[in-house]
Amino acid sequence: SQQGEEDPQALSIQEGENATMNCSYKTSINNLQWYRQNSGRGLVHLILIRSNEREKHSGRLRVTLDTSKKSSSLLITASRAADTASYFCATSGGGAQKLVFGQGTRLTINP
Amino acid sequence: GAVVSQHPSWVICKSGTSVKIECRSLDFQATTMFWYRQFPKQSLMLMATSNEGSKATYEQGVEKDKFLINHASLTLSTLTVTSAHPEDSSFYICSASLAGSNTGELFFGEGSRLTVL
Q: Is the pLDDT of residue A3 over 90?
């Protein structure tokens, strides 16, 4: 299975601090994506990083990708209470569009 | 743009009945849609890939006759849970890719919560 693992499974920090979540996967990929899910809701796409990219930024988000270690990290800077959600990494590879999701990190930002 | 709508957002049914969930791409055409299920506090597990005009491709362990998928148009895919049982209670989420796009990004519906009594 290509399904990845994320750590930590849960993270609780104070508002204003930075949050870092990590994702590891098992097979070669075309790209890796990060999604956010509020409780009981659908997923919102945050950022996509291609296999030939090492780092990408989008607003307060910074994603890194290390294909040699088959790992990625998502950094949220200057966290806000509204960032409280579950964050999932997802990979696609082998010519298929389907995404395989990691286990997710439940992030709680305390006011 | 790129909005995916699911209906119903929640449904309660009796054991043994069948339930149909619709997934629509509202402002774009989707040649491929994906169906996932998610148990509480767990990740999304891909059930099947739905291709317009052809049979769906099911993931290993997913019963084709239990979860019927139809993708009759470029904007609509349906998932029917047949003879539902309490263990089928879950959150079902569909996603769609933009026809002709090579970005790899998928657009997700808001999900449908199924409770089987």
A: no
